[in-house]
Every structure is written in C-alpha cells, then in structure tokens.
Amino acid sequence: MEALEIARWQFGITTVYHFVMVPLTIGLGLLVAVMQTMWHRTGHEQYLRMTKFWGKLFLINFIVGVATGLVQEFQFGMAWSEYSRFVGDVFGAPLAMEALLAFFVESTFLGLWIFGWGRLPKRLHLMSLWAAVLASVFSAYFILVANSWMQHPVGVEMVEGRPVMTDAWAVFTNNTALVAFPHTLFGCLAVAGAFLLGISWYHLWKRRHDGIDAVGADGRVVVGARTGSRDAVDHAVWLRSARAGAVVAMIAFAGTGITGDLQGKLMFDQQPMKMAAAEAACHDGTGFSILSVGNLGAQSCDDITAVIEVPGVLSFLANGDFTTEVKGVNTLLPEYQEKYGTNLPDDPRYGDLAGTEIDYLPVMEVTYWGFRIMIGFGAIAAAAAAAALWVLRRGTVPESRWLMRLAVFGILAPFGANIAGWVFTEMGRQPFVVAPNPDPTGVDGVFMFTAAAVSPGVSLTELVTSLVLFTAVYAVLLVVEVKLLMTYVRGGTASAMPELAHTGDDDARSGRKDDGDVLAFAY
Known about the structure:
The chain is mostly helical. The chain is 64% helix and 6% strand. The chain is built from 15 helices and 8 strands. Strands 1-2 form a two-stranded antiparallel ribbon. A two-stranded antiparallel sheet has the order 3-4. The model is unreliable at 503-523 (pLDDT under 50). This is Cytochrome ubiquinol oxidase subunit I.
C-alpha cells in the first residue's frame, strides 16, 4: 500500500460524494426557479406549493452539499501540495472567481430568498432565487474550466518547470470546457427530472392507495379531496411535477447524448488513450465494442475479444465518418512511451516510484464499464421517463406498489450515470493528473504525472487516518440527508407549508407539530 494510492482513494471518495449533491442542487434549483416564475405570472396556488415543497428539498441538499464541498478546498493543500504548486498559477483565476464571485452571489441571494418570503416584494424575491440559481450554474462553469485545463492545458507557457497563464481568454474558453459545461448541465437536469418524477409518482400512488383519487369508466382520474393539504390542488401539484420531470428527463438525455458525442470527438484528439481504453479498442479499426471479454486490465490487451461489435461506429464517434481507422491501445502505447518516456524520472518527488515503468493504459475495467454504465443508466432513465409520461396521460398512476417502488428507485439511475461519467473522466486520464496535449490546439509539453502530485510530507498513516475519518463523517452526513429528505417527502406539501396541515389529516407532516419543523424558518 502506497501513499499515492490512499491519497487517490481519499480524493475520489470525497469528490464523488460531493458530486452526488451538485447535480441535484443545480438541476432542482433551476426547476424551482421556473416554478416560482410560473406562480409569479399566474398566481395559481399549485405553483406556490410546488415552489415551497421542491424548494425545501433543494435547501436540504444545498446545505449538505456546501458542508461536503468545503473539504475539497483543503484536499489540494493536505494531500496534493505538489499538484497545487504546479497548477496554482492557472487555477488561481477560475477558483477565485468560483469562490469570491459565484459562491458569494449564490449564498447571499439564497439567504434573501429563504428569509424574504412575505418580506420582499414578489418580483424582487423571485429575482433573488434566479440570482442564486444562476450563480450556482456559473460556479459549475468555473470549476469545469479548472478541470478542463487538467484534461487539455491551454493558454500557458512553461516557466522554470511550471505552467504560467499567459492567455486568460484561452483558459476560460477552452474547447474542452465549452463542451463539458452543457454536458454537465444536461446531466444535472436529468437528475432533477428523475427526482421530480419519482417523488411525484409516490404521492400520486399514495392518493390512489388512500382512496382519495379513483379511476372512472373512461380510464381517467377522478380527483378526490380531503381536509388539509390533500385536496384537488395537491393532485395538480404532483401531476404537473411528474409530467414536468418526465419531459425534463427526456430532453436532458437528448442533450447529454449530443454534447457527449462532441466530448468524445475532442477526447479522441486530446486524450486518444482514454477513449481507446473506454472502447476496448486494442487494435486499429472502425468497430465499436458493445461487449468485450478478456483481461481488461492487461498492459497490451491482446487477449481481449469483442463479442458484439458494430462496424463504423467507433469511426463516427471519433471523426464523424464510418471509414477512418482509429488508433487502438497497442498502437498508442509505443507512441506515448516514445514521447513521454518509459519510466518515471529519477526525481525525489516520485519517492519510491522514481524510475519505475509507466503504465499508460488506464484501468480498463473502469473506463470500459464506466462509459457503458454512464450511457446505460442515462438511457434507462430516459426510457422510464417516456413510459411514465404515457401512463400519466390519464391523470394518475396505477395502484401497483412495485411500480411505485420502481419509480422511486429510478431516481438513482441518473445519479449513477453522472457518477460513472466523472469517474470515467478522471480515471481515464491516468497516469497523468494534468494530461499532455497531442493535438495542435493545446500547449505541448505541459503535463504532470500523478505520482509527482502527492504531498511529500504526508505519511501513509496520516492519509489512512484522514481517509477513515472523512469516510465516517460523510457516511453520517449521508444518513442525515436521506433521513431529512424522506421525512419531508413523506410529509408532502404540508411539510413545506405548515399552514396546510390539519389535525384531521393523518398523512400531513406525519403528525409533527409546526414548531418542530426545523426548516419552517425558511418560509
């Protein structure tokens, strides 16, 4: 066990956990802003209830996301100080803009939105939410600018072995960032769409299960009502939310597909080994592997066999045609070795790894299956959304309990697609933490091996201890967030609007008293 391995596990666990909150925060924030806009324009109560209910879940997720995101800032100094020294002159600008501009605006205006209900003019209150939500979008862009520079360094020159920014415009308009940004936003909307659909399906099913709604002879819903929050407006809240979630999920999948294709073409130019490993393309050719078997972790991958292969698709992903041969792993390996060396430099920064052979092939099990999990989960979520939209045409959902559970668990599919995509992106860059530029749009000679990026003064014991502590704290935060979300989801709109609760409504807020609502201050 080496310090490098533990440092990578630590960063991977904390980053993936934090990223679980990010897409829901961005995607759900945008949808809540649209809901409040509709309420402002129409005055219909259903949009007010939607805004407050989904807004409460948005706030819970945002708070936990902030708490977990703070750790990321300290990772660079604790375990990756050499990396920080190398990229510091470049990362300073986008990270400063993310923290001082985007996050400052986001937190300030979100505070105004939380405490401004009934105190600020409606238009100003709505503008506060839009300012906070758009700031979170810009925050994501600045982070992606920094991450994209690691994938494709531009706008710098090497000064005494370190990259120094010479063209800020090139850094902020990096073609990798410009494609990754919409791809990430569509991924966020896919998460938010599935979130709306799954929870709304549960509440529509609950209304059927409790005998509030029924189905008439024509197969369409007969909306019922009870005292408290479970009235006809409540039905409209869940039906409209479910339909909106399904539509957003389908649009988001189409958007991720289009932008993902653009990303793939860039990767074939900028990081050919990553994409070759993702396709298990061991030899030059045009075919795309649907399923390959063999030792996906082998250095030469000679024993990998494509069981199901579609000719021409790999060429289309790389170049937009069906005939151009794409270089495979066995062709790229000697090219990488010739250009970047066969062994790590004999340098103290590499510690015990100095002089060892460099493995330019990423962990193919991760890149190959990560790429397919990303696409597969996204496609499953989109297909489920289309099926749900068809079912919802009659104004309600079936009484089937297992269908309800499937809809709720379906919320996890786009989360899985997002996580798989990020793991693929980061793991596929190895053995580089800053990838070199083989294509002419980048700055050649700017790269850093991951083995040189770890803090030299941090011991293995310190890394293991911090890894265990971070994992334990994050596990507690996960339990807290899931518990809070489940409590307020089960409570329905009354959990966000205590004034809707009624003592005779046995389902409103699950019997909780108004003064026990720790988030009631928000509204």
